[in-house]
Amino acid sequence: MKKVISILILILSLSCKSQSTISLEQAYEYSKSDDGLPETVTYVKDVNNRLDQFVGTWKGTYGDKQYEFRFIKKLNFGSYTVKWDELIGRFSVKSFNGTVLYSSLNEINDENTHFRGINIQNKTYMLNFFGTVNYCNDSGVVFIEISKNNPNTMYLSFDRDKEAYDPSKCPNYSEFVPLLPKDKMTLIKQ
Question: Where is the signal peptide (predicted)?
Fold first, then answer.
């Protein structure tokens, strides 16, 4: 009898701490609440394959720069207690004369791209980006969205961090040009 009771207590305690999987869409809904994700969530899964539309190589120009973005989908990814299906981005920026201004295309370690997914809301996917010039706030949130009319066209925009910066290392902050454009730019799937 003691063994039966012990087994029942073990089963009940495990079920109280059961792990759960939710969709990206559910995670977005939870992100709008003050409570955030429930403690039982251990995996945020792309159950509807919404991220697949972004995967691949995308190219475009903006101003006097040429851009190439590569997005891969990682499953059950991350080093935290909650794992996510998310996009990892790599990209390069070149001047029109071919000078490489920035490139993470050859970065092997996904953790070192400093360009990873956050969440999907409606049709837009958000990624965090941390550039190489942190003291000038060359970091922020990147928004990508596939065109309603053409699945081979994607729009990208950048919301630059507005937090404190080090004026001694970035004295011309107001004139500093971030790697990514604030205005919406068009990319074509390759």
Answer: 1-20
Token code pair at residue 115: 């360009």
Q: Is residue 163 part of a domain?
A: yes
Question: Using one digit for the tens of pLDDT, what is the confidence trace for 63-103?
Answer: 999 999 999 999 998 878 899 999 999 999 999 999 999 99
Q: Is residue 2 part of a domain?
A: no
Range of the domain at 54: 19-189
Contacts of 80-86 with C-beta under 8 Å, sequence gap 24+, read 81/42, 82/37, 82/41, 82/42, 82/43, 82/44, 83/42, 83/43, 83/44, 84/27, 84/43, 84/44, 84/117, 85/24, 85/44, 85/45, 85/46, 85/51, 86/51, 86/116, 86/117, 86/118
Strand runs (DSSP E) across 78-114, as ranges?
Answer: 83-95, 100-103
Judge contact between 160 and 140, C-beta under 8 A: yes
Residue 148 maps to a domain: yes
Say whether pTM exceeds 0.90.
no
Q: What is the pLDDT of residues 168-180, one digit of tens each?
A: 777 777 777 888 9
